[in-house]
Here is the input.
Amino acid sequence: EQATEVLCLMNMIPPEELEDDDEYEEILEDVREECSKYGPVRSLEIPRPIKGVDVPGCGKIFIEFSSVTDSQKAQQSYTGRRFANRVVVTSYYDPDKYHRREF
Here is the structure.
């Protein structure tokens, strides 16, 4: 898999935890803080569930780092990590798709 500066984390947060605004803000903050250990976080997207809509990428976490190296460091650290009994799955994501918000 070709490394990119955008990392996608899956199986980390159940979508229902993203429904509450306060909880959502808290999750954004936590992820940003955690990921900035590996380098500057340029942007962060966590698509939220919308009632009655099939939201693409819902429950996935997309992190844009400023370099591929930082993204690789985060990827190595997150792969296989456990969060609340779930094992985190990671993959690199196409930056062009990310910027077009094609999740």
Summary: DSSP finds three helices and six strands in the chain.
